[in-house]
Amino acid sequence: MRSFHSLLTVGALALTTLLIAFRADEGFPARLIEQLSAYMRQRPTEKVYIQTDRDVYLPGETVWLKGYLFNGINHQTDSISRVLYVDLVDPAARKVRIHAQLQATGGYAPGQFTLPDTLPDGTYVLQAYTSFMRNYPTDYFFAKTLTVVSPAATAARPATATGSRPDVQFMPEGGTMVAGIQGRVAFKAVDAQGRGISVSGFVVDTNKDTLTGFASQHLGMGFFALQPVAGQTYTAFVRTGDGPLTSYPLPAVSAEGASLQVDNLSNRDKVRIFVQHNFASQTGAMTLIAQSRGMVLQTAQVPLARKSSSVQIPRTQFVEGITQLTLFDAENRPVCERLIFVDRNEQIRIGITPNKTTYKKRERVDLTITTTDAAGKPVPANLSLAALDNQLTPDIDSAGQTIVSSLLLTSDLAGTIEQPGYYFDTTHIDRANKLDVLMMTQGWRRFVWADVLSGKVPPTTYPVEGGLSLTGQVRRLNQKETGSPVKLTFVVAHRDSTREFFTGESDATGRYGAYDLNYVDTATVMIQAVKGKANRDLTISLDQLLSPTVTITKVPYNPLEIRRDELAEFIRRTNEYLAIERQIRNNREVLLKAVTVRAKRAEVVDSRKIYGRADATIKFDQTNTAGRLTVLDVIQGRVAGVQVTGSGFSAQVQIRGAVNFSGAVAPLFVLDGMPVDLQTINSLSIQDVDQVDVLKGASAAIYGSQGAGGVIAVLTKRGSPNYDLTKEAAPGTLIAKLPGYTPVREFYAPRYDVASNEPPRPDFRTTLFWAPMVQTDATGKATVSFFTSDNKTTVRFNVEGTTVEGMPGIGRSRIRVE
Of these four, 96, 266, 350, 553, which has the most CB atoms within 10 Å of its CB? Predict the structure, then answer.
């Protein structure tokens, strides 16, 4: 992506001399660009998209998914965050039913989660975000609906009651109705569920004179022209269908101001912007800025000497997607705003070519997937593919969300966008007109201009995560803060018996954080305050133990709520398949219980030791720790060639023979496998230490140049793979089991070209194949294979993905199984 900013010629006539003569603040455009750039450097943005294998499930099924992370400014993949949070939210109960943490590598995060057998029937919201995205309103989280249907709830839900007053909002183009200036007023009408509804009506003034009529064009949206008069109030009378008229007030008329109108449709090469004003007290020039995702594309100054001016911007100066146009008055205050969508045709084309068009049951399908740009040139891309039985899961919402509509449209808009895929379906010849109406009715407030102009940057509460985090607060009993920093030790015990041990310190308020951790599935975490006897009156809280906050601002429309009768076959077949799966699983468990295995217990390998046998080992116990204060106090005089000078926290240590041309070389200190400094070793409680290993000379060579002075390895009791952290509960200590990254499972797809030891069973899978990481090569090609099921049906392919540069694309295709 490129960023542009230049001064344009304003007006349809030769206005160059006017531009020179009427500049109230020549430096404002340049200052505005610099202030916005500085703001975006401190407040970068990220975007997330999730593709699921389908949108409808039964309780007990697995939801297969892939997350995409994008730089919010240039749309490149491989965003700086490495943790993607996915919540399955129950809007009715306002409760997070499932919370998963996916590891993102290179901007891609494949994963899955299983729906509980007891999950209630209903519509759920799949919400995805990074930690850093929580610094912004939840409007910019990714959200899509998933429908869960149970075998006992096959009937369609009751239709929404009619006759209730629709919600109709009126939005003047540019933001304000200005006296004496003709402009356009957009409107949007929705029902109680937030779905757009068709309306018609008319507008009257204070004298009850009818000025204009109107009717919605698409999903309850439309616009009409109006020239307001100062001192008048306007009312719209609206009806749905043949229903009664309902009155709605239009926004108040401003006696003085400016209007902004945009023609983004009539000229294929340029966007035309019309500026009108009736300012009487201001002189000089107004400033128009066009920016997209924080990148300034163009600026122009509009002379106040002309009551009406126009600006023309070549489409080549825009980037793909939404651009925000803002008009500032002569006093550098934003007075008008308008969104436009610019289609640069910068999307990849995804081709799906099967080796046949018609297949038999349980026959192998070979697909060739190709990715090209708009000019037909091959481009490499990372894709995810779902092959679905179209009979079991019909494509009910063909205008639903895709990676294209999400990245270019909905991720930059607040609120719910109904049928976002409609605006990118080339079969709709009127899509550009309807998309322009959407731009007039949907606001965009990712940042506030007042903050940008003042240099005020909202604080960043949530950091960028390069890995999993442990955050929380240490408090004194019955107090909100500790009053001073507290030293902490952390132990993370993984399921494979490996352990991590590290230290840290809270701030003066007791807040602490350990970042960039990496563990899969569940780990046992122990956090302990190290503050002598004073740690007995400390309590430790952990943010990761708190339930996720449920804040839903986007609940996309779900057409399945009124078309569940089409899912009867899916419910029957899937319920039978799940019953067979449960029976096979139960049989396996019975067989496993009947088998007795006798074997010697494998020795647990201590991952903290990368060396073999140490040159010397001091085991810590009551006989050698009594009366000692630090680790060096205990080993003093107990290892030949190890000289400890001083005592207590000021003690120093030297291993004989560890010298170079510069003199003595200090030993390397290692705490549970991690290099630390002497201060950390001296701050340890000797009651927590299990043993100390000393490596000299050649034995320390395994640590490279760091071990030139020898190695003193301290092994703690809690860091041992045999130590049970759950048995330790002491004041100033917190022990908890925490979920790590969700383990990525491989999608199971049976192969019918090889013999199987399992008994044959019916195959009526809804999702026949799921491939989350399909990578096309430099020639733009990739191949995948799978087998059809026992159903005579149509198999539907949904492929989505993006290039590294951020060009998204979708591919659709079908085959027939006879």
Answer: 350
Handedness of CA 176, 178, 181, 184 (dihedral sign): positive
Going by their DSSP bridges, the two strands 200-204 and 210-215 should be labelled as antiparallel
Q: What is the pLDDT of residue 685?
A: 81
Backbone φ, ψ for residue 16 (5° rounding)? -60, -40
DSSP per residue over 39-108, as a string?
HHHHS--EEEEEEES-SEE-TT-EEEEEEEEEETTT--BS-S--EEEEEEEETTTTEEEEEEEEEPBTTE
Give the Cα separation of 19 and 287 in Å (integer).
Answer: 11
Question: What was the pLDDT predicted at 230?
Answer: 93
Left (φ > 0), alpha (ψ -120 to 50) or beta: where does 219 sit? Answer: left
Handedness of CA 531, 535, 538, 542 (dihedral sign): positive
Render pLDDT for 358-405 as a digit per residue (tens, 0 to 9): 999 999 999 999 999 999 999 999 999 999 999 888 776 778 899 999
Identity (one letter) of the amino acid at 674? M
Cα separation, 642 vs 377, in Å, equals: 68
Q: Are 258 and 475 in contact (CB under 8 A)?
A: no
Unique residue bearing structure tokens 């998933």: 146
Paired strand residues for 464: none
- Reported residue count of the chain is 818
CB distance 431 to 405 below 8 Å: no
238: β partners? 201, 246
Name the percent of the chain in helix, strand, coil, to the closest 5. Answer: 15, 40, 45
Check: CB of residue 712 under 8 Å from CB of residue 670: yes
SS3 of residue 793 by DSSP: coil
For 85, counting Cβ atoms within 10 Å of its Cβ (0-12 exposed, 13-18 middle, 19+ buried), the class is buried
Residue 624: name the closest of 691, 574, 544 by CA.
691
3-state SS class at 648? helix
What are the residues whose beta carbons fall under 8 Å from the beta carbon of 366, sequence distance 6 or more? 354, 355, 783, 784, 785
Q: Comparing C-alpha atoms, which of 681, 662, 657 is closest to residue 671?
A: 681
Q: pLDDT tens digits for 31-65?
A: 999 999 999 988 889 999 999 999 999 999 999 99
Q: What is the largest CA-CA distance in the chain?
A: 105
- Fill in the DSSP letter of residue 743: P
- E strand or H helix that includes residue 345: none
User: What radius of gyration do the chain's Cα atoms show?
Assistant: 33
Are the beta carbons of 568 and 154 closer than 8 angstroms? Answer: yes
Structure tokens at 477: 């009993």
Count of CB atoms situated within 10 Å of the CB of 806: 21
**To which H or E segment does residue 32 belong?**
helix 28-42
pTM here is: 0.82
**Which residues fall within 8 angstroms of residue 108, CB to CB, at 6 or more apart?**
66, 67, 68, 69, 77, 382, 772, 773
Query: Nearest Cα to 813, choosing from 801, 789, 795, 800?
Result: 795
Segments of the chain with pLDDT less than 50 = 1-24, 154-162, 562, 592, 599, 601
User: Do 746 and 772 meet the contact criterion of CB atoms below 8 Å apart?
Assistant: no
Distance CA 503, CA 681 (A): 10
The rounded distance, in Å, linking the Cα atoms of 777 and 235 is 60
Question: Structure tokens of 35?
Answer: 């202030």
**Phi, psi angles (nearest 5°) of residue 740:** -100, -150
**Distance in angstroms (rounded) separating the CA atoms of residues 809 and 780:** 13
Q: Cα angle vertex 666, ends 663, 670, to 5°?
A: 160
